[in-house]
Design brief:
single chain, Alpha-Beta Plaits, 2 domains, 3-stranded mixed beta sheet, 10 helices, about 10% strand
């Protein structure tokens, strides 16, 4: 992945002012993913996301709602954090997960600044789960199922450039309704899922969005030194192993020498017996 100039790809614009909290988008996502029926407790737990629910609608107060899902960062920290390449970003803009490569380290969960990846804790062979922006549909030029499911047209699909233009037009047309800010335009280095709202997203249950820096800008100074540190540690272990094995060999030789009969002692004993 080219972090310096990531491909923009497709995306979704979420207009918080149009969301009524009906949950049609989350239901369409669940049906498309084949997640099956959910327990009631999963619907009420925290932000609603789980290994069975990859998107949710967070409701705060009276009449305030916001869809929550993976933001599909242009330079995703979870992709860099994955040791085995189980997470990748497609040319269409989706961050996708390959369960066949996953080793269950859950570094992706730790690296996500908005806590999106979820683990299937209740399964014997658990996997990580997250929204993939209906990547199969994106490859066919189709919108994610959640977009078409929204009866209030709160979700819009298109290229990221088109969505940014649409967002600016809506803000300019109704400056008294929208905050003059497009969430995801610059946050985390830019995201494929964008938001416009009349209130800060933090007021709708989202964690405080971090600054414009990508996650790589925080992690790369450390990650770049990992190969050298790993080689240094291996070299140290090899040296320690050599010293330990050498000492063990010397101890064995000394023990063998001490246990062996002394030639002079044998001769003396023989002469004494003869007398």
């Amino acid at each position: 992945m080219n972090h310096s100039n990531p491909v923009q790809g497709k995306g979704v614009l979420i207009d918080v002012t149009r969301c009524t909290g009906c949950g049609s988008c989350a239901a369409a996502c669940r049906d498309a993913q084949g997640a099956g029926a959910e327990r009631l407790s999963e619907k009420l737990r925290g932000d609603g996301l789980s290994g069975r629910r990859l998107s949710s609608v967070v409701s705060v107060g009276r009449g305030r709602h916001a869809k929550k899902q993976c933001l599909h960062c242009l330079t995703p920290g979870c992709v860099d954090a994955c040791l085995v390449g189980a997470l990748t970003r497609t040319p269409e803009g989706a961050v996708v997960y390959d369960a066949d490569k996953c080793i269950g380290c859950r570094y992706c969960m730790l690296s996500c600044p908005v806590s999106i990846p979820r683990y299937e804790w209740d399964k014997r062979a658990p996997l990580m789960k997250k929204c993939d922006l209906c990547s199969g549909r994106l490859r066919q030029g189709l919108a994610p199922v959640c977009v078409g499911a929204c009866p209030e047209k709160a979700l819009s699909f298109g290229s990221r450039e088109q969505l940014l233009m649409m967002a600016r037009q809506r803000i300019a047309a109704q400056p008294g309704v929208y905050l003059s800010h497009i969430y995801g335009e610059k946050e985390l280095g830019g995201t494929s899922v964008l938001y416009i709202s009349d209130v800060p997203l933090e007021a709708l249950g989202w964690p405080a969005i971090v600054g414009e820096q990508t996650m790589q800008s925080y992690t790369w100074p450390v990650m770049s030194k990992t190969p050298a540190l790993g080689l240094g540690a291996c070299g140290l272990l090899v040296g320690v192993n050599f010293i330990i094995r050498r000492r063990m060999k010397l101890q064995s030789l000394r023990a063998a020498a001490a246990a062996a009969p002394h030639p002079g002692a044998d001769v003396g004993e023989s002469e004494g017996d003869a007398r």
